[in-house]
Design a protein that fits this description.
Elements lengths: L6 E4 L6 E3 L3 E5 L5 E5 L6 E2 L14
Antiparallel strand pairs: 1-2, 3-4, 4-5
The structure holds zinc ion (ZN).
Length: about 60
């Protein structure tokens, strides 16, 4: 089940979704670090992985 989103992830500062269009650079080979400009706070951030689209209470 793959939910492909155009978001890079979530801004760690303001928790706003960062769209892929804001992508600036991707660094790293083993651990990928993505840098993008957050549209909400205007900072260069490393977006966290996109939040789970579905919140299922499966634990
Ligand atoms: Zn932000």
């Amino acid at each position: 089940m793959t939910n492909e989103s155009s978001d890079l992830g979530t801004c760690p500062l303001c928790e706003s979704p960062v769209p892929a269009s804001q992508l600036l650079a991707v660094f790293g080979s083993t651990e990928r670090t993505t840098f993008a400009e957050c549209p909400a706070c205007g900072d260069i951030v490393a977006p966290t992985d996109a939040p789970l689209p579905e919140k299922s209470n499966k634990e």
